[in-house]
C-alpha cells in the first residue's frame, strides 16, 4: 500500500502528466485562444503545486517558485516572447540560487568540464543561431542565464541523470526555439521536439529535486 502522503499528492503528478502530454497533441489548434494558453501552462503549474506540497523547507519553496515562474512563462509566451522570456529568466535565477545552495561536495573533473561547457557554449550557440536576427543579443543574454542554470544543476547534489539531464533538456529546447525563429532549422522539425524536451525536462527537475529533499534527514531541505 502506498504511503498516505505520497498517495495524497501523487494526483498532482498525474494531472501534470495528463496536461503536459495532451497539450502536445492540441498545441497547433488554430482557434485555441485562452483555453489553450491555460492548457499549456497547466502541466508545469501542477508540478509547482506538487513541489509546494511535497518539498521541504526553503528549498521546497524555491523549486515550487521555479516551476510556477515556468508555468507563467508558458502562458505569457503566447502573448509576448519578451514577457514570457523574462518570467523564465526570473525562474532560472531562482533555480541557480537553489542549486548553489545544494552544491555537490566533491565534483569530478569531467563534471566540472561539462558544467563549464553548458555555461559557456549555451549563449555562444544561441548567438550563432540567431545573429543577425532582430533581438539576437537578447536571445544570447537569456541563453547565458539558461546555461548558468544548467551548469549549476549539473554540479548540485540533486540526481545528475534526472535534475542535471532535465536542465540540459531545457537548454536544448530553448536552442531549438531560437533555431526555429531564426530559420536555422525548419519549424516542422523544431515544433515536434521543443515541447517534449521542455516538459520532460521540467518533470525530471521537479521530481528529482523534491524526492531528494524528501530524503533529507534534517527535514529542512537546506
Automatic annotation (TrEMBL):
MF (Gene Ontology): hydrolase activity
Localisation: Membrane
Keywords: Membrane, Transmembrane, Transmembrane helix
Keyword Transport: no
Membrane topology: Multi-pass membrane protein
Superkingdom of source: Bacteria
Residue ranges of the TM segments: 33-53, 60-77, 83-100, 112-133, 139-156, 163-180, 192-210
Any one GO CC term of the record: membrane
Main location group: membrane
Entries under Pfam families matching the protein: YhhN
InterPro entries, A to Z: TMEM86B-like (IPR012506)
Family to which this protein belongs: Belongs to the TMEM86 family.
The protein, known as: Lysoplasmalogenase
Organism the protein comes from: Erythrobacter aureus
